Amino acid sequence: MAQQDPPPFDLVGRLAAGHDPAAALEQLRRRRLPRSLGKQADAAAHYRPSDELLMAINMAIQVAAPLLLTGEPGTGKTVAGAFIGRYFGIPVFPFQVKSTTTADDLKYDFDAVGYLHWAQSDNTSGAPPGRRRPGNRRAKTRRDFLQKRPLWHAYDHATESVILIDEIDKAPRDFPNDLLHELDQHSFRHPFDDTEVIEPRCGRPPVVVVTSNDERRLPDAFLRRCIFHRIELTETLVADAVQAHVGDFPHLGPDELAAAQKRFWELRDSPLDKKPSTAELLVWLCILSARRIDAEALRSASLAALPAIGALVKDPQDLEALG
Questions:
Q1: What is the residue range of 66's domain?
Q2: Structure pTM?
């Protein structure tokens, strides 16, 4: 019997005599990433918000209030911002919140090290910088080391835009409260000139979308200014997401997709600390498709022995509990 070629999913194997790295690299380059694993802008084209989410989006836009979206990771909170941008054909300025983020990081970034290096190298005579050049000339040069960040870019844009503040619950507690003026007045002072006000050039505030994974409670003063919506992971939401990306699973038929979703919900009903969400399910389906897994293999396996279980369950204790 002639040996069959390995399925396209198998890119890496054991090193053996005659291994050709160049051929392996060419195979790596030819792989086609599924749309569901691609950019948010691509995912937005297939995003199907619920009626309740659409209502929340419309309320936030109508009253120019931030839209605060909460829910489990992987429920489509971030893609909602890209969806709004795609719907209106306006740019989205994303801002990924970190544990060290400050409100100024959303507005601008000043390269203090670069400026200090310039000031020292420019002072060739050894005289104090203030005497080397007129003060107003030096103040203007400082602006060369100022970089605009998402909020400033949005205000500078000629038309409406979307600001996506992603995972705000990761920030220090003061971060949301430090944004209250910008959220209310839609303006801020220039960092080097208190008389200069930065505000939307188009005359209308951008659409602000804020996401949170519910890792901690946000300040009440911030919450009062938001339109709130929690995205619940429902069977309808999951089924819609799978259907929207069905082209990424060319080797899974209706039976396989139904069996895979049934096992996914069984995992969700198990006592896991970290339950899989929609994002993990889409990755898992891509892998099942590439491996040509049939419905019977999915139905007959125990939860712990499901094919590619590592795409769904990421906690060692959860894996042990399934066993």
A1: 40-110+149-230
A2: 0.80
Query: Is 167 inside any structural domain?
Result: yes
Q: Is residue 5 scored above 60 in pLDDT? A: no
Cβ–Cβ under 8 Å, residues 79 and 44? yes
C-alpha to C-alpha distance for 25 and 38, rounded to whole angstroms: 21
Three-state SS for 195? strand
Q: How far, rounded to the nearest angstrom, does the alpha carbon of residue 48 sit from its chain's CA centroid?
A: 17
Q: Residue 148 pairs with which residues in a beta bridge? A: 108
Instruction: Tell me the C-alpha distance between 215 and 212, whole Å.
Output: 7
- Quick check: is 1 in a domain? no
What Rg do the C-alpha atoms of the chain give, in angstroms? Answer: 25
Q: Rounded to whole angstroms, how far apart are CA atoms 207 and 56?
A: 12
Query: Which residue from 46, 41, 47, 49 is spatially nearest to 164, judged by alpha carbons?
Result: 41
Asked if residue 291 and residue 173 are part of one domain, the reply reads no
Number of domains composing the chain: 2
Q: Is 116 helix (H, G, I), strand (E, B) or coil?
A: helix
Read off the amino acid at residue 314.
K
Sequence length of the chain is 323
Alpha carbon distance, N-terminus to C-terminus of the chain: 38
18, amino acid identity: G
Are 73 and 208 in the same domain? yes
Distance CA 289, CA 111 (A): 48
The token duo for 53 is 């989410």
Same structural domain for residues 309 and 249? yes
* Per-residue pLDDT tens over the stretch 24-81: 998 888 877 776 666 677 778 878 889 999 999 999 999 999 999 999 887 889 999 9
User: 254-269 and 278-290 helices cross at what angle (nearest 10)?
Assistant: 140
Q: Which of 110, 55, 106 is nearest to 210 (CA)?
A: 106
